[in-house]
Design brief:
- This protein has 705 residues and is α/β, with parallel strands linked by helices.
- It is 35% helix and 18% strand.
- It has a seven-stranded parallel beta sheet, with helices on both faces. It has a six-stranded mixed beta sheet with strand order 12-13-16-14-17-18, with helices on both faces. The protein has a six-stranded mixed beta sheet with strand order 21-20-19-24-22-23.
Length: 705
């Protein structure tokens, strides 16, 4: 890197040395000397002489940087917030995980795709590391291809770029061959490909190929790598691992069932970074996890909310010592690993301190045995709503509508974890869902109750599964679909993905399903009740999902019955924008704003994606996460109506209240369904459940009379 290692602070310890070629100063974003000089001066308290030595420039240049930064508005007592936040997160990631270096891309207005921003940042990182004589291993993926496309370097000598995994004949642009070639071309390096498939049919073929002299020579080159750049794949349904076709012959449920959290270079790891054994172990041709961890400079480039568990697993396992990510993902990683003091700055983890006797550390709840909370809740729920639903056999986890399934009708099965009441059980009844499968708190239902629901809902015309896009739900519902189809029941599936904060627009299929489930379930139930075919029900449900947009905000986290403690801490003056319904991290943690300002931030994000024209109609849901009262929800709705009216967009229908909660979380979400004529008719179609009743219009009643 161009930067020199900074001198020890006066009175403080010196900084340790990183691996070969890596200095221990955090990387700068955008090669911005103004921000870095200001950081060292205002945040680290260095003198201008110490800064000059750290940056490898003269003291006069440092003085000029500081003066120009004030004139440019970068510094006005404090560093520009977005840049300061990214530097703060980078330093805390480096400290917490013992990284040699960390580059964090600031959050922006989503005007540029995240993959492109990460690619540019990763290219900047590599440009400061690669030297003549290096051998660089490259693992494939969309983000790593973007790194190669953004990389520009001067002339180097004797650099080799080697493919880290076998290849593929797939047609997508980020294959191992194309990714490796892009990076080699960017630095005019010798390119060495692995001329064998990434996954072969048997262990015998694997061993025969590795014995071939040419492939053995290629692996010898790979073994000499002193640097590697790689992405990290999640196991969500739209992830590269699912869409690449590499693993079509192997059910990924095997790895999910054994706790796999992510994949790097074709190798599966669990949440602690440990290898997950499976049928691909002796059939995969490429770098092993042991080989990867032995390389001196290991650069991981990845971002996005779906990557938080996988990135955390990779960091815990020590597979990366240089990380390039975005600010929201970096903050999510830290929170997921227990770093709680993220109020404005990410400082080192708070140590427990004695509290006064008057300070409550537990949340009060109406409980008997906390371990029985779900079963006792279901007992009460079934007893109170027995006019609408009943158990399938003796299973409380599989409930069917008393007045729903009928011969010749497509059955609708929904489901998910408990803790979100009235979702999902509140939407079972005539004209809506025919059956619901329930799991433990925030956990997917297992396959068995889902199959029971499919059988109970089946009227001979097939069954539609509709549920949120979460790895556990996908795994169990897919297994249940296979079992139901073995019994002769055709199954179609629609995943809800309405949470626009959970993934960028180019990754819409990877988004979470949250409170917008309400609209998707309603439309699907009406389509089924009207006698549409299975294919037609699936198509209209997908349309409803594609036109539903949700953003949530949390002011306080929820508390689990077993612990009666908040899942995580939000500072007294902070809020989490883009919060998930299980406590997943939001887009950003910010200072609490007024209600109108919060709604404006949410609606601005929705308007970016919802291409509504003046005169269009929408449906609105203002939903409480559990502890937010109606008084505050109505204040939020007031502003939603004002923002829509300003664009001449008509609210055709609205709901305000508790529709998809997160236990006792203090917060709310806003969902907008962009209507057309078909969706409007289905939304107003009569239904009758424990929570939602929509009556037929008076004109329909008169006609029937």
């Amino acid at each position: 890197m161009a930067l020199k290692t900074s001198a020890p602070r006066k009175g403080g310890p010196g900084r340790g040395n990183g691996p070969e070629g890596i200095e221990t100063i955090p990387l700068r974003y955008g090669d911005d000397p103004y921000v870095w000089a200001c950081w060292l001066y205002y945040e680290d308290g260095m003198t201008q002489g110490e800064i000059a030595e750290a940056m490898g420039v003269s003291r006069a240049t440092v003085n000029s940087y500081l003066a120009d930064a004030r004139e440019k508005g970068i510094v006005n007592i404090s560093i520009e917030p977005a840049r300061l936040a990214s530097l703060t997160i980078a330093q805390e990631l480096k400290r917490h995980f013992g990284l040699a270096d960390c580059l964090v891309v600031p959050n922006d207005d989503d005007s540029r795709p995240l993959i492109g921003r990460l690619g540019a940042a990763g290219a900047q990182a590599l440009s400061k590391m690669i030297k003549s004589g290096d051998t660089i291993a490259v693992a494939w993926g969309r983000t790593i291809l973007s790194v190669g496309e953004h990389l520009e370097m001067g002339a180097l000598q004797d650099v080799t770029v080697v493919q880290a995994t076998g290849g593929t004949t797939a047609s997508f642009a980020y294959t191992p061959e194309l990714t490796t070639a892009a990076l080699a071309r960017a630095i005019s390096a010798r390119c060495v490909n692995i001329t064998a498939p990434a996954v072969v049919a048997s262990a015998q073929i694997h061993d025969l190929l590795l014995a071939e002299p040419l492939i053995r020579e290629q692996f010898d080159t790979l073994a000499r790598a002193n640097r590697i750049v790689f992405g990290i794949s999640s196991l969500r349904p739209n992830s590269t691992i699912h869409t690449s076709g590499f693993f079509e012959s192997v059910p990924l449920q095997h790895y999910l069932a054994k706790g796999a959290a992510g994949v790097l270079a074709g190798r599966f790891i669990d949440e602690r970074g440990r290898p997950v054994a499976g049928p691909l172990d002796d059939r995969t041709i490429g770098i092993s996890l042991e080989m990867l961890r032995a390389i001196g400079t290991r650069v991981a480039v990845a971002g996005g909310f779906d990557k938080v568990p996988a990135l955390l697993a990779a960091l815990r396992g020590g597979y990366a010592n240089v990380l390039v990510t975005d600010a929201a993902t970096g903050a999510g990683i830290l929170r997921a690993d227990g770093v709680t003091s993220l109020d404005g700055k990410l400082l080192q983890r708070q140590k427990s301190t004695p509290v006064a006797n008057s300070y409550r550390t537990h949340v009060k709840k109406f409980l008997n045995n906390p371990n029985d909370v779900v079963e006792e809740m279901l007992d009460g729920l079934i007893a109170s709503h027995k006019a609408y639903l009943q158990t399938v056999g003796n299973s409380r986890r599989a409930l069917v509508a008393r007045d729903g399934p009928r011969p010749g009708k497509v059955g609708l099965v929904i489901g998910g974890g408990t803790g979100h009441e009235p979702c999902f059980v509140g939407y079972v009844g005539k004209g809506l869902a025919d059956a619901v499968a329930l799991g433990n708190i925030f956990s997917s239902p297992p396959p068995d109750p889902i199959v029971k629901c499919a059988v109970a809902a089946s009227g001979g015309a097939g069954v539609l599964f509709v549920y949120g896009n979460y790895a556990g739900d996908v795994m169990n519902f897919e297994m249940a679909a296979e079992l139901a189809e073995e019994q002769g029941i055709p199954i179609r599936t629609v995943l809800t993905t309405d949470d626009i904060a959970s993934s960028p627009v180019e990754d819409k299929e990877g988004r979470r399903g949250v409170a917008g489930n309400f609209f998707v379930f309603k439309v699907a139930g009406a389509a089924c009740d009207l006698g549409m075919t299975l294919g037609e029900c699936e198509a209209i449900t997908r349309k409803a999902n594609d036109r539903t947009y949700t953003v949530g905000v949390a002011l306080e986290s929820c508390s689990m019955p077993q612990t009666r403690r908040h899942n995580f801490e939000i500072g007294p003056d902070d809020m989490e924008l883009g919060m998930g319904i299980h406590g997943e991290p939001g887009v950003s943690r910010e200072r609490v704003r007024t209600a109108d300002e919060i709604v404006d931030a949410i609606m601005d994000n929705i308007f970016k994606e919802m291409k509504a024209e003046p005169g269009d109609k929408v449906a609105v849901l203002v939903n409480s996460f559990g502890a937010t009262p109606l008084m505050e929800l109505y204040i939020l709705y007031r502003r939603v109506e004002q923002r829509l009216a300003a664009k001449n967009i008509e609210i055709d229908a609205n709901w305000v209240g508790h529709y998809c909660t997160s236990l006792d979380m203090v917060g709310a979400s806003i969902s907008i369904l962009h209507l057309d004529r078909q969706l409007t008719d289905l939304l107003h179609h009569p239904c009758q459940t424990a929570i939602l009743t929509i009556n037929a219009p008076e004109t329909d009643k008169a006609a029937k009379g």
